Amino acid sequence: MKLTRRHFTTLLGAAALAPLAHADEIEPPMEGVEYKKVPRPHPKAKHVTVFFFYGCPHCYHLEPSIDAWLQRKPADVTFERYPAVIDSPAWIFFARAFFTAKNLGVLEQSHKALFDALHRDRLKLFSVEKLAAWYSQFGVDPKDFDTMFKSFKVDTQVKEARKLTQDFGIDGVPAIVVNGQWLTDVVMNGSRTRLWQTVDWLLANK
Description:
Strand content: 5-15%
CATH class: Alpha Beta
Distance between the termini: 33 Å
Protein name: Thiol:disulfide interchange protein DsbA
Number of domains: 1
Family: Belongs to the thioredoxin family. DsbA subfamily.
Helix content: 40-55%
Keywords: Disulfide bond, Redox-active center, Signal
Largest sheet: 5 strands, mixed
Shape: globular
Number of strands: 5
Organism: Sulfurivirga caldicuralii
CATH architecture: 3-Layer(aba) Sandwich
CATH topology: Glutaredoxin
Strand order of the largest sheet: 1-5-4-2-3
Structural class: alpha+beta
Domain DSBA-like thioredoxin: 95-186
Number of helices: 9
Protein backbone atom coordinates (compact mmCIF):
# COMPACT_ATOMS: atom_id res chain seq x y z
CA MET A 1 0.00 0.00 0.00
CA LYS A 2 1.34 3.44 -0.93
CA LEU A 3 1.82 5.65 2.13
CA THR A 4 0.31 9.02 1.24
CA ARG A 5 0.71 12.17 3.30
CA ARG A 6 -2.81 11.62 4.58
CA HIS A 7 -1.98 8.08 5.70
CA PHE A 8 1.23 9.28 7.36
CA THR A 9 -0.58 12.02 9.24
CA THR A 10 -3.27 9.57 10.31
CA LEU A 11 -0.69 7.10 11.60
CA LEU A 12 1.12 9.79 13.59
CA GLY A 13 -2.14 10.97 15.08
CA ALA A 14 -3.20 7.45 15.99
CA ALA A 15 0.11 6.79 17.72
CA ALA A 16 -0.07 9.98 19.74
CA LEU A 17 -3.73 9.81 20.69
CA ALA A 18 -4.41 6.07 20.90
CA PRO A 19 -5.10 6.14 24.66
CA LEU A 20 -7.76 8.81 24.07
CA ALA A 21 -9.43 7.27 21.03
CA HIS A 22 -13.20 7.68 20.78
CA ALA A 23 -15.94 8.05 18.18
CA ASP A 24 -14.99 11.64 17.26
CA GLU A 25 -11.49 10.60 16.16
CA ILE A 26 -12.40 8.05 13.51
CA GLU A 27 -12.80 8.94 9.85
CA PRO A 28 -16.40 10.21 9.79
CA PRO A 29 -18.69 7.84 7.88
CA MET A 30 -20.49 9.19 4.84
CA GLU A 31 -24.26 9.36 4.67
CA GLY A 32 -25.51 7.32 1.74
CA VAL A 33 -22.38 5.17 1.82
CA GLU A 34 -21.86 3.78 5.32
CA TYR A 35 -25.24 4.73 6.74
CA LYS A 36 -28.52 6.17 5.52
CA LYS A 37 -31.71 7.74 6.84
CA VAL A 38 -34.54 5.26 7.29
CA PRO A 39 -37.73 5.88 5.24
CA ARG A 40 -40.01 6.36 8.25
CA PRO A 41 -38.06 7.23 11.40
CA HIS A 42 -39.09 6.34 14.94
CA PRO A 43 -36.82 8.78 16.82
CA LYS A 44 -35.39 7.41 20.04
CA ALA A 45 -32.32 9.11 21.52
CA LYS A 46 -29.22 7.10 22.41
CA HIS A 47 -30.68 3.83 21.17
CA VAL A 48 -29.27 0.96 19.11
CA THR A 49 -31.36 -1.85 17.65
CA VAL A 50 -29.90 -4.89 15.91
CA PHE A 51 -32.34 -6.52 13.49
CA PHE A 52 -31.71 -10.19 12.77
CA PHE A 53 -33.15 -13.53 11.70
CA TYR A 54 -32.23 -16.70 13.61
CA GLY A 55 -31.77 -18.57 10.33
CA CYS A 56 -29.21 -16.05 9.03
CA PRO A 57 -25.54 -17.17 9.24
CA HIS A 58 -24.32 -13.57 8.91
CA CYS A 59 -26.42 -12.64 11.95
CA TYR A 60 -24.92 -15.57 13.84
CA HIS A 61 -21.38 -14.49 13.01
CA LEU A 62 -22.07 -10.90 14.05
CA GLU A 63 -23.01 -11.95 17.60
CA PRO A 64 -19.44 -11.95 19.03
CA SER A 65 -18.84 -8.38 17.85
CA ILE A 66 -22.19 -7.34 19.32
CA ASP A 67 -21.13 -8.76 22.67
CA ALA A 68 -17.77 -6.98 22.43
CA TRP A 69 -19.46 -3.67 21.66
CA LEU A 70 -21.88 -4.12 24.57
CA GLN A 71 -18.90 -4.37 26.91
CA ARG A 72 -17.87 -0.82 26.01
CA LYS A 73 -21.09 0.93 25.03
CA PRO A 74 -21.84 4.19 26.85
CA ALA A 75 -23.96 3.74 29.95
CA ASP A 76 -26.65 6.09 28.64
CA VAL A 77 -27.17 4.09 25.43
CA THR A 78 -29.98 1.54 25.38
CA PHE A 79 -29.67 -1.58 23.24
CA GLU A 80 -32.06 -4.20 21.98
CA ARG A 81 -32.16 -7.10 19.57
CA TYR A 82 -35.22 -7.30 17.37
CA PRO A 83 -36.32 -9.89 14.83
CA ALA A 84 -36.74 -8.58 11.31
CA VAL A 85 -40.01 -9.81 9.84
CA ILE A 86 -40.76 -10.20 6.15
CA ASP A 87 -43.53 -12.21 4.50
CA SER A 88 -41.72 -15.51 4.87
CA PRO A 89 -42.96 -18.41 7.02
CA ALA A 90 -39.47 -19.07 8.41
CA TRP A 91 -38.89 -15.45 9.42
CA ILE A 92 -42.31 -15.24 11.05
CA PHE A 93 -41.80 -18.59 12.81
CA PHE A 94 -38.53 -17.56 14.44
CA ALA A 95 -39.82 -14.08 15.25
CA ARG A 96 -42.58 -15.84 17.18
CA ALA A 97 -39.91 -17.91 18.93
CA PHE A 98 -38.06 -14.72 19.93
CA PHE A 99 -41.13 -13.02 21.38
CA THR A 100 -42.28 -16.22 23.08
CA ALA A 101 -38.91 -16.54 24.82
CA LYS A 102 -38.99 -12.85 25.75
CA ASN A 103 -42.50 -13.06 27.20
CA LEU A 104 -41.61 -16.17 29.19
CA GLY A 105 -38.49 -14.52 30.63
CA VAL A 106 -35.89 -16.80 29.04
CA LEU A 107 -34.64 -14.69 26.14
CA GLU A 108 -31.34 -13.71 27.73
CA GLN A 109 -30.23 -17.29 28.34
CA SER A 110 -31.72 -18.77 25.18
CA HIS A 111 -30.82 -16.23 22.47
CA LYS A 112 -27.25 -17.29 21.74
CA ALA A 113 -28.10 -20.91 22.49
CA LEU A 114 -30.73 -20.94 19.73
CA PHE A 115 -28.25 -19.49 17.25
CA ASP A 116 -25.76 -22.21 18.25
CA ALA A 117 -28.40 -24.92 17.96
CA LEU A 118 -29.33 -23.89 14.43
CA HIS A 119 -25.91 -23.01 12.99
CA ARG A 120 -23.33 -24.95 14.99
CA ASP A 121 -25.31 -28.02 15.98
CA ARG A 122 -27.50 -28.04 12.86
CA LEU A 123 -30.64 -28.90 14.83
CA LYS A 124 -33.80 -28.77 12.76
CA LEU A 125 -36.09 -26.91 15.12
CA PHE A 126 -38.69 -26.17 12.48
CA SER A 127 -41.90 -27.08 14.30
CA VAL A 128 -43.53 -25.65 17.41
CA GLU A 129 -43.31 -29.06 19.09
CA LYS A 130 -39.56 -29.39 18.52
CA LEU A 131 -38.94 -25.80 19.52
CA ALA A 132 -41.02 -26.18 22.69
CA ALA A 133 -39.08 -29.31 23.64
CA TRP A 134 -35.79 -27.49 23.03
CA TYR A 135 -36.79 -24.52 25.20
CA SER A 136 -37.60 -26.89 28.08
CA GLN A 137 -33.89 -26.86 28.98
CA PHE A 138 -34.47 -23.31 30.22
CA GLY A 139 -37.25 -24.37 32.55
CA VAL A 140 -40.12 -23.65 30.18
CA ASP A 141 -43.00 -26.11 30.19
CA PRO A 142 -43.66 -27.15 26.55
CA LYS A 143 -47.38 -26.50 27.04
CA ASP A 144 -46.68 -22.97 28.26
CA PHE A 145 -44.37 -22.40 25.31
CA ASP A 146 -47.00 -23.64 22.87
CA THR A 147 -49.69 -21.45 24.41
CA MET A 148 -47.54 -18.32 24.32
CA PHE A 149 -46.24 -19.07 20.81
CA LYS A 150 -49.83 -19.14 19.50
CA SER A 151 -51.09 -16.25 21.62
CA PHE A 152 -52.65 -12.97 20.54
CA LYS A 153 -49.84 -11.17 22.37
CA VAL A 154 -47.22 -12.75 20.13
CA ASP A 155 -49.42 -12.14 17.06
CA THR A 156 -49.39 -8.44 17.93
CA GLN A 157 -45.65 -8.34 18.57
CA VAL A 158 -44.89 -9.99 15.23
CA LYS A 159 -47.13 -7.50 13.42
CA GLU A 160 -45.32 -4.65 15.15
CA ALA A 161 -41.98 -6.15 14.15
CA ARG A 162 -43.10 -6.43 10.53
CA LYS A 163 -44.18 -2.77 10.52
CA LEU A 164 -40.89 -1.64 12.05
CA THR A 165 -38.95 -3.69 9.51
CA GLN A 166 -40.86 -1.94 6.73
CA ASP A 167 -40.66 1.54 8.27
CA PHE A 168 -36.89 1.24 8.60
CA GLY A 169 -36.51 -0.04 5.05
CA ILE A 170 -34.72 -3.19 6.14
CA ASP A 171 -34.27 -5.56 3.21
CA GLY A 172 -31.42 -7.64 4.60
CA VAL A 173 -29.96 -8.69 7.93
CA PRO A 174 -28.11 -8.16 10.12
CA ALA A 175 -28.98 -4.49 10.13
CA ILE A 176 -28.48 -1.87 12.81
CA VAL A 177 -30.69 1.15 13.41
CA VAL A 178 -29.29 3.98 15.53
CA ASN A 179 -31.60 6.39 17.34
CA GLY A 180 -34.54 5.06 15.34
CA GLN A 181 -33.39 7.09 12.34
CA TRP A 182 -30.14 5.80 10.84
CA LEU A 183 -29.61 2.43 9.17
CA THR A 184 -26.22 0.77 8.75
CA ASP A 185 -24.84 -2.72 8.19
CA VAL A 186 -21.66 -4.68 7.50
CA VAL A 187 -22.06 -4.52 3.72
CA MET A 188 -22.27 -0.73 3.73
CA ASN A 189 -19.18 -0.48 5.94
CA GLY A 190 -17.03 -3.26 4.52
CA SER A 191 -16.13 -4.80 7.88
CA ARG A 192 -17.53 -5.40 11.35
CA THR A 193 -14.90 -3.11 12.85
CA ARG A 194 -15.95 -0.22 10.65
CA LEU A 195 -19.62 -1.00 11.30
CA TRP A 196 -19.21 -0.42 15.03
CA GLN A 197 -17.16 2.71 14.39
CA THR A 198 -20.09 4.01 12.37
CA VAL A 199 -22.52 3.08 15.15
CA ASP A 200 -20.37 4.93 17.69
CA TRP A 201 -20.11 7.96 15.42
CA LEU A 202 -23.86 8.08 14.86
CA LEU A 203 -24.49 7.90 18.59
CA ALA A 204 -22.05 10.73 19.21
CA ASN A 205 -23.10 12.97 16.34
CA LYS A 206 -26.69 12.24 15.36
